[in-house]
């Protein structure tokens, strides 16, 4: 009997203590991590609103539940912050969230409502509205100390598979160019193009795109075709010289070579070029010396017009890269060649392989001003149709064997292109499109999420 009375007295004392905590926000209790803390936070089952298309082609939505218990939450004990660095999917209902909180030493948890500013006891069975961060407080078992936390449940507010485009200010200088090529180097974007009998260049910051500065260096009319970047440098071939620059204005002569026609690709350690008789050569010393490349097919299949390249890392070896060379032959056929490049040794086979396929439905079409860039871990092809309309964006995720469309990849809405076209991808994974006097900058939403998440966790 005495044990029961003792238990009732202890229970009444505990209830009285917790009641006092809820009433007084400005009490004199101390904050001591050794006494109490939130040690784990997780979510329960959540609801997501998804888009769909009905059989008759109408847009519709439906709800689907998913288990969010494995979503990782980071607890910053020093600043009292709890949050999920990788946001929940778009459409997740964060206004009705079931959570699970674990505490040190069996601490008692309360939270402050964003609706009325009052404190309430926390319960795993009650859903919470996390459309805004919620203040949690955990009291020690004795009630003598507490810790405060600001808990956020982050969810994407944009659809992941959507390109978000921004139209930049028109540039009348670009309208006078008959052909163009865009190159991204570090924090700068360069546009080179033919204006009459010469190649001229312009540059802007990748954070700008509205203000362009004319470069003081000019080249011969067709030199724009072979200007490319390697690391922090620009390279070009003009008037029998290999040139390099870090700013586009001051160029240094690397070597003199009358056999070179244009640069076509670059890896981290090699430059590739076409010769005047349309052979493929390589330089492993920054353009000083050149050697013939080995091909597994006839050189007549090499691209000589609208040449682009895509560089990607080989799986499992950061020193080895995969070079994809894309363009159109002298006969007007779109072709793809591939080669491995090793930055450390020359032990790997360096033969170029012509990518062939008997699936004509998935071959790369012949686009005007064909431009291929690396994006979303794939090769992305763009350009113009014969009538100067925007040609369908096509992706290859298998090394150039097949090229297919993806609904997520689309041009700016109501885009009106000129009779020229060029594109590039900057280091922030923005795609730049320039056509006539028009300039656009766009990025796939989920690519931006990956970049933001990587920056937040580095």
The CATH level-2 architecture of the largest domain is identified as 6 Propeller
Please tally the β strands and state the result: 34
Helical stretch tally: 3
* Average of per-residue pLDDT values: 88
Strand numbers in spatial order across the main sheet: 4-5-10-9-7-8
* Number of domain modules: 2
The separation of the N and C termini measures 61 Å
Shape: elongated
CATH homologous superfamily assignment of the largest domain: Kelch-type beta propeller
| Percent range for β-strand residues | 35-45%
Class of secondary structure makeup? mainly beta
Just give the CATH class of the largest domain.
Mainly Beta
Q: Major sheet: size, sense and barrel closure?
A: 6 strands, mixed
The level of helicity is under 10%
Q: What is the CATH T-level topology of the largest domain?
A: Neuraminidase
